[in-house]
Design a protein that fits this description.
Blueprint lengths: L1 E6 L10 E4 L13 E6 L2 E11 L14 E2 L8 H13 L4 H7 L7 E9 L8 H7 L7 H13 L2 E2 H7 L4 H10 L2 E9 L4 E8 L3 H10 L5 H12 L4 E2 H8 L3 H10 L2 E8 L19 H15 L5 E6 L5 H14 L3 E5 L7 H11 L3 E4 L5 H12 L5 E4 L11 E7 L16 H12 L2 E6 L4 H7 L2 H8 L22 E5 L10 E6 H6 L8 H13 L2 E5 L8 E4 L16 E3 L4 E3 L6 E3 L12 E4 L3 H11 L5 E4 L9 H10 L5 E4 L12 E6 L3 H4 L6 H13 L10 E6 L5 H7 L3 H14 L7 E9 L2 H20 L6 E14 L2 E10 L5 H10 L2 H7 L2 E6 L6
Parallel strand pairs: 12-17, 12-18, 13-15, 13-16, 14-15, 16-17, 19-29, 20-27, 20-28, 26-27, 28-29
Antiparallel strand pairs: 1-2, 1-4, 3-4, 3-5, 6-7, 6-8, 9-10, 9-11, 21-25, 22-23, 23-24, 30-32, 30-33, 31-32
Bound molecules: adenosine-5'-triphosphate and zinc ion (2 copies).
One zinc ion binds next to loops.
Cofactor: Zn(2+)
Family: Belongs to the helicase family. PriA subfamily.
Keywords: ATP-binding, DNA replication, DNA-binding, Helicase, Hydrolase, Isomerase, Metal-binding, Nucleotide-binding, Primosome, Zinc
Length: about 850
């Protein structure tokens, strides 16, 4: 039996499985998905077993054996190993990168150089060495070192050097002469947490006997034995110490006498251990919920791989449908994965799932510590849970019988990972569900155009996009070749209990200006805020920008403060009175005079959340504002803290960036204001209108979700834009029609698919030459695909033309259908691999990009 192993080196040359022997002793332990240590050239590396077989590519006699199996259970399931191959082919990354993305960060290997006693010291004890005479006599210090290392078994080289300071060169010499041996160990970054636990070793009566026999002066020890006699259960050492107010040596003394034992016991770090979640029972479904639930549960019961797109207006009760569908799945003995966008994974969301399914739920998000995340993941692997709710990467939860995958707020662009592997969790979820015969539910009040397009019958899609195929479905690659599925549309048009959607007002800010209102609050919004404060109702204000102001500009000469390393203007931060670059972190002091013309008329422009907060304080004295943006939520738990304060009505206003727009369900919120609806609309991105419509609909949806009716104000300089008008009328259909027309006209997704290639280098000439070489090669390769329509745009400078002192050029590929364009792009990029290596050119390829900057 041989194992194919993919090693921990993300490079082109190592992007394949290498064969290794499985030593007899490890047979039982090696499986597909095992993490192993293998010799690789002079090094020892971590790798994943991706195949077991009995026909090696090379002479079996020359194969090396696997050195170690690193886990008790393989951290990856065979289906995940297969999925990794699909991810690497679809999104053009190394397979090891895809595999690594599937295991928690705690399992990423840490390579340590250790020292052992070398085999030159053949007979073990140095006494023999001396008598044999053929060895050079060891110096006493050398003997000390060898004895020390022998005692440790093996020791990290740094620790050895710090023990024997100033013996560095001697130790090096001993390694060269073979008295010491250097080995490489693979350690996990994190391991299961263990605590010392005290175990009684006998029955209570015996313990009491022992207590009796102890001399009178050992009062404390007697106390411990009597305590254990009374409650004869294992107890954490630290708990025992604090309970009896004794020292560890007391307990240790008893252990030495054999009256009790102290062992290390593995415990799980549970971020929610201190919280209790009141159990909830299924609600009686509304007729609309009933219909939707019926379709989903039927598919789950029939174990059919189907994809539903659930379009339900804000407050229509999608979560309850998810919960009951998951119950159906669990009743089947299968497992469920729920994905939510990182920022809407609020305590409220967790509570809904833990409240219904209790300890069966694991939670995975980035605000957990690495250790907590590792332990949540272990609960999944050890089958202690059967539901996981988490952000993007939870799609890789190591379940083995997935029955249902739910993606809430499926339109969210954060489901696309921006670093390699640049996967889209929505598309990966469909691939994974296909492997398991599982059902996918994509839920949103504002479904993405891609998903909506996926619901159209083939004929209609053809009509719109002539020969296009749905982009969001599974491509036929490798083992994952499955027939494409068409998405089935389910709709919920009403809020529960017939609550009305909020009334929306569009406010034309140009009019405000012309009538002399220079404030960032229109008169009508101002009045509405006053009204709610008086009624003790709550307000959500959205400003899609953080910081105090977007940029600093000189009114005399037009100078704008820009980052010296990136072509992007700096953002003013009020609290530190600094200008900061959001791309590289560069920071400088606020200037009081213009660096260009020395004028004093240099000001911050635009409005940031900090400035709104200040102005609210001035306009409404005594108003209690919670500001939530990246700057106020970096601390662990801060997100939770702010939302709890708001829920407990300890604030009147929740002001923030898009993180206040999603998923929140607060009964007292009756007013929502979008202060500058155009910020997103003005971005140079073909999805700007879609993002604007989604954001306004979502934030508006926070108002009036319970008994009290809601009202929304949208402040804008472009009140005639269809995304704003449609959002104000809750009219998804008319927005969709217009936007589909626009996308079709410009050959944008979902009618065409995109691949964005960004090249970067410190020098423009080399960069331009490389970009042109790349584009020319790609154009040549594309000819082979004719008549498949493929368009190659560029190279042009990227919208952000420089980041961290590296210039950036991009090419955009637009194509239709399922042709394997990605492969061609990779081939074209390969022609530059020498330049990449020699001159440090970087090429980044983004398949189905969400961010075009
Ligand atoms: N069948 C039901 N009977 C009574 N109340 C319900 C029912 N279903 C849901 N609700 C309540 O309605 C409110 C809105 O539901 P939920 O938050 O699930 O909406 P949603 O569709 O997820 O909205 P959004 O897209 O805005 O997040 C919640 O307070 C929920 O408890
Ligand atoms: Zn100036
Ligand atoms: Zn910068």
């Amino acid at each position: 039996m041989y194992a194919k192993v993919i090693v921990d080196v993300p490079a082109k040359q190592t992007n394949r499985g290498f064969d290794y022997l499985i030593p007899e002793a490890l047979r039982e332990w090696v499986a597909i998905g095992s993490r192993v240590a293998v010799p690789f050239g002079p090094r020892k590396l971590q790798g994943f077993v991706v195949e077991l077989h009995d026909r090696p590519d090379f002479d079996p006699a020359k194969l090396k054996p696997i050195s170690e199996v690193l886990d008790l259970y393989p951290p990856l399931t065979p289906d995940l190993v297969e999925l990794a191959e699909w991810v690497s082919q679809t999104y053009l990354c190394h397979e090891i990168t895809a595999l690594q993305a599937m295991v928690p960060g705690a399992l990423k290997a840490k390579y340590e150089r250790h020292i052992k006693v070398g085999d030159k010291d053949l007979d073990g004890a140095h006494g023999d060495l001396l008598s044999q005479g053929q060895h050079t006599l060891l110096l006493p210090i050398e003997e000390d070192i060898i004895e020390f290392v022998r005692g440790k078994g093996s020791i990290e080289i740094g620790s050895l050097l710090s023990k024997f300071t100033s013996q560095g060169s001697l130790i090096k010499q001993m390694i060269t002469q073979g008295q010491l041996l250097e080995v490489q160990l693979i350690k996990d970054r994190m391991s299961a947490k263990k605590v010392l636990t005290v175990f009684p070793v006998e029955q209570p009566l015996q313990l009491m006997d022992w207590a009796e026999q102890l001399p009178d002066k050992s009062k404390k020890q007697k106390q411990v034995l009597l305590y254990l006699a009374e409650s004869p259960y294992p107890i954490k050492l630290s708990d025992l110490l604090s309970e009896l107010n004794i020292s560890a040596s007391t307990v240790k003394g008893l252990a030495d006498k054999g009256y009790l034992s102290i062992k290390e016991v593995e415990v799980q770090r549970d971020p929610y251990a201190l919280r209790t979640f009141p159990r909830t029972v299924p609600l009686t479904l509304t007729p609309e919920q009933e219909v939707v639930f019926g379709s989903i549960s039927q598919a789950v019961n029939e174990l059919e791989h189907r994809v539903f797109l659930l379009h339900g207006v804000t407050g229509s009760g999608k979560t309850e449908v998810y919960l009951q569908s998951i119950q159906t799945c669990l009743d089947q003995g299968r497992e469920a994965i729920v994905l939510v966008p990182e920022i809407s994974l609020t305590p409220q969301m967790v509570e809904r799932f833990k409240g219904r399914f209790g300890n069966q739920v694991a939670v995975l998000h980035s605000r957990l510590s690495q250790g907590e995340r590792f332990d949540e993941w272990r609960k999944i692997m050890l089958k202690q849970v059967n539901v996981v709710i988490g952000a993007r990467s939870a799609i890789f939860a190591p379940f083995t019988k997935v029955g249902l995958i739910i993606i809430d707020e499926e339109h969210e662009s954060s489901y696309k990972q921006e670093e390699s592997p640049k996967y889209h969790a929505r598309d990966v979820s469909i691939a994974r569900a296909a492997q398991h015969g599982a059902v996918v539910v994509l839920g949103s009040a504002t479904p993405s155009l891609e998903s909506m397009y996926g619901t159209l019958p083939e004929a209609e899609q053809t009509q719109i996009g002539s020969s296009g195929n749905p982009p969001a479905t599974l491509r036929s690659i490798g083992n994952l070749a499955k027939p494409k599925v068409r998405f089935e549309l389910l709709t919920m048009r009403e809020r529960v209990e017939g609550r009305p959607l909020p009334k929306v007002h569009i406010v034309d800010m140009r009019e405000e200006l012309s009538e002399g209102n220079r404030s960032m609050f229109s008169r009508s919004l101002h009045k509405a805020i006053e009204d709610r404060i008086q009624k003790k109702e709550q307000i959500v204000l959205l400003l899609n920008r953080r910081g105090y102001a977007t940029f600093v500009m000189c009114r005399s000469c037009g100078y704008v403060a820009e980052c010296p390393h990136c072509d992007i203007s700096l953002t003013y931060h009020q609290s530190a009175k600094t200008l900061r670059c959001h791309y590289c972190g560069y920071t400088e002091r606020e200037a009081t005079v213009c660096p260009s013309c020395s004028s004093e008329h240099i000001r911050h422009f635009g409005t940031g959340t900090q400035r709104v907060e200040e102005e609210l304080g001035k306009l409404f004295p005594g108003i209690r504002v919670i500001r939530m943006d990246v700057d106020t939520t970096t601390e662990k738990g801060s997100h939770e803290k702010w939302l709890t304060l708001f829920r407990n009505q300890q604030a009147d206003v929740l002001l923030g960036t898009q993180m206040v727009a999603k998923g929140l369900d607060f009964p007292m919120v009756t007013l929502v204001g979008a202060l500058a609806a155009d910020t997103v609309l003005n971005l140079p991105d073909f999805r700007a209108a879609e993002r604007t419509f989604q954001l306004l609909t979502q934030v508006g949806g926070r108002a009036g979700r319970h008994e009290l009716p809601g009202e929304v104000f949208i402040q804008t300089y472009t009140p005639e834009h269809y995304s704003i008008i449609s959002a104000s009328k809750h009219d998804y259909t008319s927005f969709m029609d217009k936007e589909m027309g626009f996308r079709k006209f410009h050959d944008y997704p979902p009618f065409h698919r995109l691949i964005l290639i960004t090249l970067s280098h410190e020098q423009i000439p080399l960069l331009m030459r490389s970009a042109e070489t790349f584009a020319a090669k790609l154009k040549e390769l594309a000819k082979s695909l004719a008549p498949v329509p493929i368009e190659i745009l560029g190279p042009v400078a990227s919208p952000i033309s420089r980041i961290k002192d590296r210039y950036r050029f991009q090419c955009m590929v637009k194509y239709r259908g399922e042709a394997s364009i990605a492969g061609l792009v990779q081939q074209a990029a390969a022609t530059l691999s020498d330049v990449e290596k020699q001159y440090k050119l970087t090429i980044s390829i983004d398949v189905d990009p969400q961010v075009l900057m």
